[in-house]
Amino acid sequence: MEIQVQELNNQNLFIKDSEVEQRNDLIKNILLYKVDLTLQKGTDYYGTVEIHLHLQDNRNTDNHVQIDFAGQKVDFVKIRNIDQSDSQFRNIKFTFERNRVMIDSEEIMQDLKQNNKISIMIQFKNQYNNTVQDRGLFSTITGENQYLYSQGEVASMHYIFPCVEQINFRAPFQLSLVHPADWVVISNSSIAYQQNINNLTVLSKFETTQPFPCYLYGIFAGNYVVYNQKYKEKVDLNIYCRKEKAKVIENQIDELFQITKFGLNLMEEYTEIDFYMKKLDLVFCDNYNFYGMENPGCISLEEKRYIFEEEREPLKIMRRAYIMFHEIAHMWFGDFVSLEWWNNLFLKEGFATFFGYKAVSKYFSQLEYGIHIELQKIMILIDENKANMITLSHEKLPYYDYSMFKAHNCISYNKGGMFFQFLEQKVYGEQQFKELLRQYLRENSFSKVDEKSFLKYFKDIYSQKYLFKNHLSYFCESQFTDLMNLGLVEDNYKNLDLSFIVLSKINKSVINSKYDDLAKYSSIDNIILLNTSDNHLIFNRIKMEDLKFLDENNIIEKFNLFQRITIWNTLLFENIQFQKQEYFNDFFLRNLQYENNMVVLHYIMRIYPQFCKQFTEKQEDKIINLYLQENDIQKKRIIFKNLIRYINSEKNTFSLIQIYENQERKVKPKYLNKLKQKIKKIYNDSIEKITKLGNKQ
C-alpha cells in the first residue's frame, strides 16, 4: 500500500495487544468468512457475517470470544458446530460495546465437539463513511451517482463488518451483495452468478477466494464504467472509473492496460509464479485517502493522481506507473505471501518498492526514469535520524501504533526497497538472489512470514545487520564512517564492489574507479566521491573546497546522470546531517541548469527546500530569473510548479503573484493556498487578490 494521509482513531476503543494475544491462544485458524451485505443508495447498509473458527485444542476455557466491529448495531449473534450436518444455528447471549462483540465461553462450549470448529453468525447494521478521516466503507456522491469503496489496511475491515481484525489469520472470503440494479459491484474474485430480485435490485454472488488476511478483502459498488482487456488470454483485466471521468480516461486507457500487463509479466518472469487469480481489476476511487491498495484481484487507486486531466510532467507519469507496479507486486509480496505481524512490514512494502522501481526502470528504459529510486536515500536519512525510529524488523509496537501507520514510513518502504536492491546487485548477484526469492515464495505460498522466514534463505552478514539496526554510513576522504553502530568493517564495504567517481583537479577529467584502485589517486590532486547511484545504502560527504572546485570549473556540466545524482544526494546529506550553509544554496542554484533529466530535476526541486538553509532574497531572485529565462517548455513548467517552495521574502512573494497572474491556465488551488499562507503575515487584504486568481480560467 502507498500512504497519502494518516487517519484519526480513538485509541481507547482500538483493539488492545492483550486482546490479540488472548485470541492467538484461543483461535487456531479462521476457516472462512461468509459475508452477505445489502447495499442501499444513501447512507445505510446491513448484512450478516458467518465466521468459521477452528479453536485451539489447549485453549483456556475461561476465555470469551471477541469479534471486532466498529459499526452501528448488532441485531443478533448465533452459533453452531460446522462439522455436524444436522447442526442448526441457535441464538446466544452477547454484549456489543466499545467496538467489540463479546461472547461468553460458556455459550461456545455448548456447541464444541472434538473437532473444535464452530461458526458464529452476526447480523448487523452500519453506515457508509464519507470523509477521509473516517474508516469503513467509503461513499462519494456526484449528482445522481454514488460510489462505494473499501480500504482495510492496517486494521480497518472491522469498521465495515464484524471480523477478527488480525493480519496473522488468513481465511477465504465468500461475498454476496444485494445492490441497486444500476450499480456495478466488484470484489477480489469474479462474480459466480447474478439474479434479479426485482426491477430495482440484484443479487451478486462472488466466487470464494483463496485464504487472505481480512484487511485485503475488497468491496466496491456504484455507477462505475468498465473497460476490459485480456492478459495472455488467461486473466481478465478490468479498469473501473466513475462515469464522470469516462471521457477523461478514454485516451489513457490503453496506457493503463499496458502498464498493468507489463507489471504482471515482469512479476511472473522474475518469480516464476503465475498470477493466481482469474482477473485483476483496477478501481479508481474519488477522494481516496491512499495512493493505492493491493486488494488481491481488485487494486484500488486514487483517481486524482492517476487519471490525468491535463498534460503531466515526467515525474508524475513515472509515479503513476510506479504506484501501479508497486500494487501489482503486492499480489506476490503481501497477498500470496503475507505477514505474521506488522513488525516486518518491509517484507511486503520493501519488496513492492523494489519491484515497483525495477519495473519503472525497464518500462521507461530509454528515459532513465528508474534512477529515481536512488534519490530516495535522502528520505531514509530523515527517518533514520528520528528518535526511537523503527528498524526494518523490530520488536512489536502497540497494535494501535500500526493502525496509525507509524511503521508505514521511509524505513519500511524506501529503505526496504533499496535493501533488497542492494542484496540483488551487491551481495548475491541477480541470478542467485532471484533463485532464493523464488524458493522463498514457493515454500511460503498462501501463508505467513516473519524475519526468521526471510533469514532462512538470505544468510549473509548484511541482512543480519540491516534488518535489526538503524544505519547511517558515509564515505569521505577514502574511508567509511558509521554513525549508528551498524557494525560493518572495512572488508565488508570492500566486498561490495562499490563504484567511485574520481575527478582530476589537474586536467579536470572524470573517471570511474573501484575501491582497490583508489590508492592510485592522491586526495591532493583528485576529488574522490562514492557513486551513490550504485545500488547501496551508503551516503557520501564532500569537503567544502572540493565542492567549490566543482562549482568554479562548471564540472557538473560534464557529469553524467549518475554522477549528478551523487552530487544532489551529497548536497542534501551535508544539509541534513551536518550544517546548512548559504553556499550550498548558491551551488544548487548555479548548477541546477545542468540537470537535464526531468524526473530528477522535478524531484530535487521539490525536496531541496525542505532541508536547506532558508533562501536569501538574492537567492530567491536567482530562482525567479531561472524560471523567466528558461526556454525549454517542460523544464520551465517544472520550475514554475516549484517556485512556491523557494520564496519567502515580501518582495518576491508579490513577484510570484505577478507570475501566477500571467499564467494562461488556471492556477491550482494547492499553489494558491501555499501563497495565501506566505502573504498572510504581510497584507491581509492581499488574500482577496490571491483568491481571485483561483477563478481565472
Task: Briefly summarize what is shown.
The protein has 24 helices and 31 strands. It is of the alpha+beta class and 697 residues long. Strands 6-5-9-3-2-13-16-15 form an eight-stranded mixed β-sheet. Strands 1-22-23-21-20-19 form a six-stranded mixed β-sheet.
What is Rg? 28 Å
Instruction: Please mark out the parts with pLDDT under 50 across 5 or more consecutive residues, or reply none.
Output: 3-8
CATH 2nd-level architecture of the largest domain: Orthogonal Bundle
Morphology: globular
Main β-sheet, spatial strand arrangement: 6-5-9-3-2-13-16-15
Can you tell me the CATH class of the largest domain?
Answer: Mainly Alpha
Task: Tell me what you see in this structure.
One of its GO terms (molecular function) is zinc ion binding. Helices cover 36% and strands 24% of the residues. The chain is α+β, with helices and mostly antiparallel strands. It has 3 domains: 18-219, Immunoglobulin-like, CATH 2.60.40.1730; 223-451, Neutral Protease, domain 2 (Orthogonal Bundle), CATH 1.10.390.10; 473-619, no CATH class. The strands form 8 sheets. The protein has an 8-stranded mixed beta sheet. A 6-stranded mixed beta sheet has the order 1-22-23-21-20-19. The longest helix is centred in the middle third of the chain and has 19 residues, at 253-271. It is globular, with a radius of gyration of 28 Å.
